[in-house]
Amino acid sequence: MRSSDLIPNVVTYNASISACERGKQWQHALGLLTVMQNDDLVPDAIIHSATISACKKCGQWQEVLASLAVMQRSKLLLHVISYSAAISACAKSGQWQRPLALFVVMQEA
Length: 109
Prior knowledge:
With 109 residues, the chain is an all-alpha fold. It is built from six helices and no strands.
C-alpha cells in the first residue's frame, strides 16, 4: 500500500528496521531488508547492523551469523558493534565455539 507520492529510501528503511529491533520483531526486520533489496536499494552497514541487533535480541543466532556473512560478501565494513552483537547472540544461545571463531576473525580484520 504505497502512495505514489511516498518513496522509501535507505533512511526510512533504517528507521523501520530499528523500530523492529526495539519491538523485537526480527522477522519483520529481515522482511524489510528483503523488500529494500527488491526495491533496488543497497543496504549499508548501519542497516545490516540494525537487522543483526533485531535478530540478536530474539536469540536468532543463525540469522545473526547469516547477516554477518552477507556483510562480508558485500564487502561492507564490519564494525565492532556487528561482531559484538554476533558474539553475544551466539554466547547467549550456548554456541560458545562460534564466538571464539568470530573473535579470531574480528582480530584479523
